[in-house]
């Protein structure tokens, strides 16, 4: 038993759960002008809120700028839902705001979607059975649908001037009242309204909103909406209503009306969009009810915010898709990154291609705002880079060309020629890319990591003080240089280092392992100055035989001098001690002779 307050009642009662459910069902059924099908869709859902029949989804951007991270995520979720259910993914251009349309934005939009791999089944360019797919070419449809609402008095023509509306809102604002429309034109006779409209008098068409806004089932947030919030607002001043404009004075539809008409006409079954549109969804549901259309199912995805929990801003982050592409981000890495922004998957790894996402996707999406961490994008970029390198083929060849250009630009042709020697630049760069510890994030970043191979290292002093061990390491390192140029490969060096043993087969395993570790340490000091990098066999293959011979010989010379210096320093205390002992003995002997 839990306390529950009946809406509209003046008392509080205790009601059991079964009774509360029954009362809730009666309450929903009693709502005016909104059939029960608008509260619970008849479409069956399975695990992960996925439909058991093909879904028709759409991405409907405006050609008013570049696609950004949030919009590509919305497009991706709609695309994945359609692919997962073997449905269709539509592209529709919402270009009714002609003043904000930017020349070239439509072509950039196509290019960005295709770069990301999000191919649409119906839409501009390829068309389809429910076209046209530009709203500016569908004006006759919006006007045809509005006639039914006008005839049923569910919409009306409003001839109020902008000055009157501004004055109405200003007076209400000064009194601290909510803004809205006072329905001055709502009860105008239809004949009079039609005559004034046909004469060319400027006007808009308004939706006659219901007394209360409907609730709806969101596939992410559950049953939601404005609840019992009344549309009519009663104050000491005249009441006002939230009667949204459907057709503007220029004859173009507003976003809300065009959105509802298009989704209905194009047979859209599911709409995935940003949570900022949740406030408008009750209005859309009410429009569907007024037309007696079945609405699609809605899934609102969380807002993207930065580390400070603020909405991602263009002032602080360059999130345009074109900027990611220009920085060398792989499309599969960006798509993978966008998919993880609010989606809770069941896979063992976060690293997924578009095809893998199609197989795994569901609507298990978090409700709270999603914090965007671009460190995750860097990680995914490196992992997808490894996939491209392992796959070989055209992907690898393109990476080789890009890295080669970056190396030449950064280091200069002379240094690169010295590194490559008689080898092929393509093969040297390929060896760099296959090195396990050199993660690829971009050509420029990778070229920076590879500077350890191009520029001779500045070695610190060797931190091995055992002179006998140093001599053994000199011999071992020199032995590796006997490999001929034709066999100078990672595989050869791996085998030689594996077989190298200065202690014999009967030596203690721990001693042998320790000595092998000291050899690797010495070789890294000799070849790379001790800095982190690929394993020794990979390093030797990348550097090539001439450079390895030069660096190891120089390292042997340096470490030999350091070893001799340490030996000289270690004998000086013994010499001083011997001299002191002789002097003391002589003094004692002289004193004894004098006493006798």
UniProtKB/TrEMBL annotation:
The keyword Protein biosynthesis applies. Its EC number is 6.1.1.17. GO terms for molecular function: ATP binding; glutamate-tRNA ligase activity; tRNA binding; zinc ion binding. GO terms for biological process: glutamyl-tRNA aminoacylation; mitochondrial translation. It is found in: Mitochondrion. Pfam families: Anticodon_2, tRNA-synt_1c. Belongs to the class-I aminoacyl-tRNA synthetase family. Glutamate--tRNA ligase type 1 subfamily. This is Glutamate--tRNA ligase, mitochondrial.
């Amino acid at each position: 038993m839990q306390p529950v307050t009946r809406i509209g009642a003046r008392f509080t009662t205790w009601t059991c759960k079964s009774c509360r459910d029954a009362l809730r069902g009666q309450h929903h059924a009693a709502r005016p002008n909104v059939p029960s099908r608008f509260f619970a869709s008849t479409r069956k859902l399975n695990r992960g809120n996925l439909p058991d029949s093909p879904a028709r989804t759409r991405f409907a951007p405006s050609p008013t700028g570049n696609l950004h991270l949030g919009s590509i995520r919305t497009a991706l979720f709609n695309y994945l839902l359609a692919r997962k259910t073997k449905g269709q993914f539509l592209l529709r251009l919402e270009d009714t705001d002609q003043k904000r349309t930017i020349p070239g934005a439509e072509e950039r939009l196509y290019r960005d979607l295709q770069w990301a791999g999000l191919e649409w089944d119906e839409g501009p360019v390829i068309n389809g059975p429910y076209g046209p797919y530009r709203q500016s070419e569908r004006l006759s449809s919006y006007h045809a649908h509005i006639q039914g609402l006008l005839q049923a008095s569910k919409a009306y023509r409003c001839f109020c001037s902008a000055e009157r509306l501004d004055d109405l809102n200003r007076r209400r604002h000064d009194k601290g009242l909510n803004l809205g429309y006072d329905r001055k034109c709502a009860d105008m006779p239809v004949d009079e309204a039609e005559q004034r409209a046909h004469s060319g008098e400027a006007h808009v068409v308004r939706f006659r909103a219901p007394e209360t806004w409907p609730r709806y089932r969101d596939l992410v947030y559950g049953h939601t909406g404005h609840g019992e919030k009344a549309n009519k607002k009663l104050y000491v001043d005249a009441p006002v209503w939230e009667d949204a404009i459907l057709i503007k004075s220029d004859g173009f539809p507003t976003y809300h009306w065009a959105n509802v008409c298009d989704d209905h006409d194009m047979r859209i079954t599911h709409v995935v969009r940003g949570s900022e549109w949740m406030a408008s969804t009750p209005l859309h549901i009410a429009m569907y009810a007024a037309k007696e259309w079945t609405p699609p199912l809605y899934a609102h995805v969380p807002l993207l915010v930065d580390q400070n929990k603020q909405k991602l801003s263009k002032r602080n982050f360059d999130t345009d898709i074109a900027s990611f592409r220009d920085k060398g981000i792989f499309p599969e890495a960006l798509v993978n990154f966008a998919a993880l922004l609010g989606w809770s998957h069941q896979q063992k790894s976060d690293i997924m291609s578009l095809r893998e996402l199609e197989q795994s996707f569901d609507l298990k999406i978090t409700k709270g705002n999603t914090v965007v961490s671009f460190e995750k994008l860097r990680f995914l970029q490196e992992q997808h880079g490894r996939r491209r390198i392992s796959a070989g083929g055209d992907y690898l060849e393109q990476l080789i060309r890009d890295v080669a250009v970056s190396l030449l630009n950064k280091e200069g042709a002379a240094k690169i020629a010295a590194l490559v020697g008689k080898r092929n630049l393509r093969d040297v760069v390929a060896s760099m890319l296959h090195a396990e510890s050199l993660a690829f994030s971009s050509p420029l970043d990778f070229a920076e990591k590879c500077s350890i191979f191009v520029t001779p290292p500045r070695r610190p002093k060797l931190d091995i003080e055992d002179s006998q061990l140093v001599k053994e390491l000199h011999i071992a390192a020199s032995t590796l240089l006997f490999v001929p140029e034709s066999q100078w490969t990672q595989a050869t060096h791996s085998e030689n280092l594996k077989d190298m043993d200065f202690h014999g087969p009967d030596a203690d395993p721990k001693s042998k392992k320790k000595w092998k570790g000291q050899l690797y340490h010495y070789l890294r000091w000799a070849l790379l100055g001790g800095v982190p990098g690929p394993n020794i066999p990979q390093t030797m293959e990348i550097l090539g035989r001439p450079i390895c011979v030069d660096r190891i010989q120089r390292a042997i010379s340096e470490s030999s001098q350091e070893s001799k210096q340490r030996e000289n320093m270690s004998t000086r205390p013994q010499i001083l001690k011997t001299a002191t002992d002789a002097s003391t003995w002589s003094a004692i002997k002289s004193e004894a002779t004098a006493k006798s």
